[in-house]
Amino acid sequence: MQTATEQELVTITVNDQEVRVPKGEMIVESVKRIGLDVPIFCYHPRMKPVGMCRMCLVDVGMKQKDGSVRVMPKPQTACTLPATEGLAIYTDTEQIRKDRKGILEFLLVNHPLDCPVCDRGGECPLQNLTLIYGPSTTRFVEEKRHLLKAFPLSKYVQLDLERCIQCGRCVRFTEEISGDGQLAFLFRGALMQPQTYELTDFTSRFSGNTIEVCPVGALTSAEYRFRARPWDLETSPAICTECSNGCSTWFDHRVGEMIRINGRTNEAVNEEWTCDKGKFGHNYLNSPKRLTTPLVRDGESLREAGWAEAYERILAVFKGGGGAVAGLSGGRPSNESLFLWKRLFTERFESPNLDHRWHVHLPGAGETVAGRHGIREVNTPIAAFEGMPAIFFFGGDPAAEQPILYLRVRKAWFRNEAKVIVAAPEPTEADNFAYCVLRYRPGSEAALLGGLTRLLLEKAGGVAGADELRQAVARFTPEETEVVTGVASGALRRAAEAMAEGFATAASRTLYNLPNGADVVTALTNLAISAKSADRFNLFATEANEQGALEIGVLPGAGGLDTRGILEGCRDGGVRALWLLQCDPFERFPNRELARQALENVEFLLVQDIIETESFHHASVVLPCCAFSEDDGSYTNMERRVQRVRRVVAPKGHAKPSWKVFSELELRMTGETPPFSAKEVMGMLGSAAPQYQVSAYDHLEGEGVILPAEGGAAEPRLALPDYDAMEGSRELV
Amino acid sequence: MPETRLLLKHSGDPEYRAIAGYMAEGGYVGLKKALTMERQAVIDEVKKSGLRGRGGAGFPTWMKWNSVPKEKTKPHYVLCNADEGEPGTFKDKELMENTPHLMIEGMIIGGYAIQAEVGYVYIRAEFMDCARAIKMAIDEAYENGFLGKNILGSGWDHDIYVHMGAGSYECGEENAMMRSLMGERGMPGLKFPHAPFPTIEGLWNLPTLINNVESFACVPHIVVNGGDWYAMIGASTKNSRGTKIFSVSGHVNKPGNYEIEFGMPLMELLELAGGMKGGELKACVPGGSSVPMINKEQCEKAIIGYEELVEVGTMVGSGGCIFLNEHTCIVTFIWRTTLFYARESCGKCTPCREGSGRLVAALARLRSGDDAQKTAALRDIDELVTVMRSASLCGLGQMAVSPATSALQDFRQAVGAPKGANT
Questions:
Q1: Looking at residue A9, what DSSP letter applies?
Q2: How many other CB atoms are there within 10 angstroms of residue B155's CB atom?
Q3: How far apart are CA A529 and CA A541, in angstroms?
Q4: Nearest C-alpha of chain B: how many angstroms from A274?
Q5: Which helix (H) or strand (E) segment is A103 a member of?
Q6: Distance from CA of B341 to the nearest CA of A (A)
Q7: Which terminus of chain B has fewer Cβ atoms in its 10 Å neighbourhood, N or C?
Q8: B354 in reach of chain A (CB within 8 A)
Q9: B339: closest chain A residue by CA
Q10: How many CB atoms are closer than 10 A to CB B214?
């Protein structure tokens, strides 16, 4: 978004008061600068204005040369009128008042006025504006229109057509923002209604946003429907932890229970959108399977126990356990929890066996992107994608893996005509706006990247140490690449053409799940370096705090075992005790059989989680922990942005924040004063991992902060991976 | 005053529909002449002629032509509005069916003047015969080198395509028509001062010249005979030049299309159409159903011309002239007309979408209600038409109220009469 300082300013008058505004700004925004508000229904600042509802009418005049003002005969919509020099706006004339009242009367003619049973009642723009501008009674005696009520557009969204005021916000959202275009207006005139085409399911990944943009109760959430009145809800800011995007949300709760999640504005991350996973995926918070009290094993069964007993059992095994104990974490605990947990293992238990990664490939320190190429794995903030001229999506469906990044990239295309190159083995949602789509055979990832690298090396000369690489990819001519990968040579050339001037890479760490994942990541990094785009290279994390775990270093220490090694150790007896922190190997580890053997054979299994998992049934001790909404803490999202969450609701039962559990264990082992608040832990984290000094809680307001880059900018290094396609990839067509 | 048949001169001649017959009567001479002229000279000729848009608004044609960017940096388009849907108007239908080459030639000249490479004819869905005639005419024009690459050796290429509407009255509004042509829902978009004129940003945001069938059909005559010659026709009026086809219907003995010179009194047009049938004249809607209705007294004063008709409180519009005799129930007439607009509202803006339906309902109360209901209905109508006229997005909503407002002004006393009386 351009700022006012970059733009030419013009002087307009609003109700005879002069105001300087950027040229071309819509009047509906300009009047806000002097504290006025023009009522709106169809206008939405993030969508193109249409002027449908006519609620925002203002009288408009042009200043003449002699200083007088010539007022146009008819009022104009403020939402579509760009500011020009000498424009005179009148927001409150006799005619305007009459028109607004008339418009509201028209809108209410067919509106059922069932506010007392409507979910929107209490937070409804139509209700509010009617109170301010509208008539108090109706004059029309005709029967109201009867249409569908509570029609399920999808599992999540219900449509009440009688309440609809045909503002088109939902339709425009699916056309302009989410881009799936699943809603459209059917029929004409008074019968016009938003619907899915041929009444198919509304399967958008972002369908929940239409509920929020609806200015009446026409689109309601199937989950929230009739569960509360808005004035009974408490609303607190929170962060979504369903994926690594880290969206800002409003967390609405009532008597300690999550009721609904809405999008909260954070221009740097999610603007104001949420994905359906984030909006409807939080029901586990209220699940009856939540763990509420520590459990210890007595023979065949688990029984409830106090924290003291659980701590005793844990310390009896882990204290001084050294290499015989190990810990595995998921990517969802907060920075504070992960930091204290790591300290507990490395300093108190003196065990190097620690990991948070669950991919097939678990690169060692020298094999990561940073270790091998000398560049950072994440370089581009989400918002910066908006200004990228070329963006390379590689390996998966971005709408599924990184939904909010996907919206940002789509916006880059929609607003700024960014060229988006999508390389994926299957159709993705980004295909419909992609500049070119490279649909390769599964297994031929490295070969495809080899082909692209070859083309880019031809164009951009002068990459240090490129000779060996040039030789390695020499055989991947576009034609040969087509044979190996199935990507048409023309498409490959077109992609290389668009990428030659530099591009931002957007891939995720799930690439490490490919059988040759390490080679693919190296090839991808080489490609970025070849086009001098290493500063825009991104290998994003996919879990809420996976990036945080990486930064804090929840990784095997010197001589330590990684995830696979730990599980094998459990199976073979080398590891006697295993601590699972918010993770379930049955669900996460690619080799389920190994996970089963490990958990069955390990002597002592500690499961610390918020909900019952499959691993739970093998546990020796179970500790309940808090969900993100029940604990103070911070999360590091995919772009390395640290955002803070405050406790919104009380923990379930006897559950304790994880970091507090770890500090209490330390207290029992050392007798030193432990940290008493998450803020203190963050302070300690700042001294242990210096990049976290910026995220001390005093600075963690609003949009959060992006962690600074460590060290100086090293010259990116190329490396030589195996570019061959996986055996059998040609047969996989 | 008799008819002045310029466009319809050969309308009854079947030979004229084919290119051979058309060229035998001087067809495509205008195009040949135009191609030898400077582009600006063509526009100047149209300017001299005083031709004004025949679709309803009466905007000077040359000003549209002249406002298309002269320096061509991107494609330009010509769009012929052949979505004739105004109730009471059927002139374009005859022009397209009987004199298709006249319109095509006018379009090509227009395309040449504004340096367009492509022209579209947007024909309403119901006009299948017109579309067939236009298509055949286009094919013949290609065969004779008047369309296609390097037209008549001028080095200028032009193509014309026919696009059929899908049955929406609203798509006759130029903005909605462009949306419809581009494959979007036929709803009007933003227009001046919210967006540039179509001649700057039209189809696909590129300069687009939009004219009515009749306007284009006038162009060959202007180019052949010169603007000054054309401007002599109708010179008795203030600012209306040339001929205008009126589609006369209603209670007349000889309904049909009559091409007359501007300056003719309205009553003479009625005489041309054979006079009233079944009773005395009561009212007239001279320019298609969305222009204000006038009563007998005004009819007698009315002179046909853009400014002249405004003086008696109505408009030339598209030329759909409906005469009503003394036995017509005015309320029923405006109720039926308004019902048409309510059904054809595209649904985009609130005043038109909801207001037109309310207007129909109020008129229905006025038709059949008791005295108290009638009084209430009249009050409701008064208030809702002000909002509709003031707040609607496009002409449909703004004009949909004019039958009701104008008729109720004149006939209020009669309308308020108790049920049973024939108003």
A1: E
A2: 9
A3: 20
A4: 28
A5: helix A94-109
A6: 9
A7: N
A8: yes
A9: A189
A10: 28
Whether B350 sits inside 8 A of A60 (CB atoms) is no
Q: What is the pLDDT of residue A26?
A: 94
What SS3 string covers A143-212?
CCCCCCCCEECCCCEEECCCCCCCCCHHHHHHHHHCCCCCEEEECCHHHCEEEEHHHCCCCCCCCHHHHH
Find out whether B82 and B213 touch, Cβ atoms under 8 Å: yes
Which of A38, A69, A92 terminates a domain? The answer is A92
Contact A82/B at CB under 8 A:
yes
Q: Are residue A392 and residue A532 in the same domain, yes or no?
A: yes
In a domain, residue A733? The reply is no
- A558 and A683 fall within a common domain: yes
Percentage, residues of chain A above pLDDT 70? 97
Asked if the structure places residue A126 within a domain, the reply is yes
Q: Are B50 and B230 in contact (CB under 8 A)?
A: yes
For strands B77-82 and B118-123, give the pairing.
parallel
The owner of tokens 């609904």 is A260
User: What global pTM score does this model have?
Assistant: 0.92
Say yes or no: B185 contacts chain A, CB-CB below 8 A.
yes
Q: Which residues of A209-247 are buried (b: 16+ CB within 10 A; e: fewer)?
A: bbbbbbbbbbbbbebbeeebeeeebeebebbbbbbbbbb
pLDDT above 60: residue A733: no
Q: Is the peptide bond before B193 cis (omega within 30 degrees of 0)?
A: yes
Of residues B168, B349, B390, nearest to A74 (C-beta): B390
Distances in Å between the alpha carbon of A587 and those of A613, A618, A658? 9, 14, 21
The last residue of one of the domains, among A197, A221, A245, is A221
A140 neighbourhood in chain B, CB within 8 Å: 358, 361, 380
| Interface with A, mutate which of B384, B387, B392, B398 (most A CBs under 10 A) | B387
| Token pair in block for residue A435 | 């500049």
Write out the residue range of the structural domain in which residue A261 sits: 233-286
Strands (E), A310-463: 325-329, 354-355, 390-394, 419-424, 436-439
Task: Specify the DSSP element, H or E, that contains B25.
Answer: none
ipTM of this predicted complex? Answer: 0.89
Q: What is the DSSP letter of A669?
A: H
Are B134 and B119 spatial neighbours (Cβ–Cβ below 8 Å)? no
CB pair distance less than 8 Å for B392 and A80: no
Chains A, B: CB pairs < 8 Å: 116
Is B182 within 8 Å of chain A by CB?
no
Q: What is the pLDDT of residue B422?
A: 39
Question: By the CB < 8 Å criterion, does B184 face chain A?
Answer: no
Confirm whether A484 is domain-assigned: yes
- Kindly report which listed range (A453-467, A573-587, B114-128) carries the lowest average pLDDT score: A453-467
Do the beta carbons of residue B261 and residue B243 sit within 8 Å?
A: yes
Whether residue A549 is found in the same domain as residue A696 = yes
Distance from C-alpha of A54 to C-alpha of A76, rounded to nearest angstrom: 8
User: Structural domain tally of chain A?
Assistant: 5
d(CA A168, CA A377): 41
CATH code of the domain in which A270 resides: 2.20.25.90
Within B164-252, where are the H helices?
A: 174-181, 213-225, 227-232
Please write the tens of the pLDDT for every residue from A653-707.
Answer: 999 999 999 999 999 998 888 898 999 999 999 999 999 998 888 888 888 999 9
